[in-house]
Amino acid sequence: MNFSTSEALHQEALKHIVGGVNSPSRAYKAVGGGAPVYMEKGEGAYFWDVDGNKYIDYLGAYGPIITGHAHPHIAKAITHAATNGVLYGTPTKLENQFAKMLKQAIPSLEKVRFVNSGTEAVMTTVRVARAYTNRTKIIKFAGCYHGHFDSVLVEAGSGPATLGTPDSAGIPESVAQDVITVPFNNIEALKHALDIWEGQIAAVLVEPIVGNFGIVEPKEGFLQAVNDLTHNAGALVIYDEVITAFRFTYGSSQQIYGIEPDMTAMGKIIGGGLPIGAYGGKKQIMEQVAPLGPAYQAGTMAGNPASMAAGIACLEVLQEDGLYEKLDQLGEKLETGILEKADKYNISISVNRLCGALTVYFGDGEITNYEQAEASDGESFATFFRLMLRQGINLAPSKYEAWFLTIAHTEKDIEETIAAVEKTFQHMQT
Ligand code: PLP
């Protein structure tokens, strides 16, 4: 495969754009460096890069793309919005329509608000929880990513008794001191943290199904315990469903487990590929938000007609019967194929999968928390990534990311992917 145009564009980008990328996860730093591939066109399950190479795409733009690229129904909605005016600065009918659709799909959303990104959505839920409880500290889980605002770029010191330390330069210690991080799937650690910081915790923030150290499901009873312990402590439960909303079912992980949080943050899929975020929850909590209440949140671009139209169109597509079952079947075929080839060539991997999203971890043992994901073999993943790319399979350039299937992927795409996996494992074995 020839990547010369991508390489030239990357050299040019390095002169103008910091690190050559507008989001660090797009760089190939974690997979040995070099120029990322510059894509030029996406259609269905496929990408074409600037050198004319074709790929089967499993990046799915880090989660938003579930209908496949350039889905005609969504494209039509965006085109209509473009010719009708993309930004008004006034309320529009589309906002009501979309808010009602979200509420119908996710019953815990008694009231919602649209913002522009997942980061904004989570950030505001934390602010609202602090306003509602009149407390400042939050608990989050190690390895979960909640966007790039100060409070959530914080990792644990050394366990539940320790206040957080900033994960990024530029975050004041004083902000990190309000964040406690505990291991995912560890009820005892959460209980311990809530005991230590009794009366000070505003909210427990969780990805109910983790998407950010690979796909990691909650152990049985974990989410119920999060709700029970958090509520007993007088704090609110916030679900970060930025990845999970509409990824595994029409609705959210709340429907999958039958457990409702107090507030939910969303993004990605609900924008149909355009920038979006949304948050919502119980009426009396949401009424903390301006103009009704004292917690301020605003946005020039919030609820813009283009994102609303794309989001509505995306959800309309996702209402089709049998669609998530199809994603599950394709996901199962892919998982089985990868595991079979790993077995054949004696490559140690484990696969975590839910419906049409999966992660391949190199190394032994199951992955149920961040520590285990961190210990998985990044060098083998980097080799795997590069060999797959050279066979036209586009994955996220990080061992922590998921492969996202779309409704545009076919059985044939999966078979081709498994054939590429076989060649890759054969190569890695030698
Ligand atoms: N929350 C989760 C679970 C995410 O995966 C992400 C982004 O990957 C975010 C929040 C932040 O969303 P955005 O990148 O739209 O700001």
TrEMBL record:
Q: Example GO biological process term?
A: protoporphyrinogen IX biosynthetic process
In terms of CDD domains, this protein maps to: OAT_like
Q: Name one GO molecular function term.
A: transaminase activity
Where it sits in the cell: the answer is: Cytoplasm
The protein's annotated pathway: Porphyrin-containing compound metabolism; protoporphyrin-IX biosynthesis; 5-aminolevulinate from L-glutamyl-tRNA(Glu): step 2/2
In the UniProt record, the signal sequence range is none
Which cofactors are reported in the record for this sequence? pyridoxal 5'-phosphate
* Keywords for this protein: Cytoplasm, Isomerase, Porphyrin biosynthesis, Pyridoxal phosphate
Name used for this protein in its record: Glutamate-1-semialdehyde 2,1-aminomutase
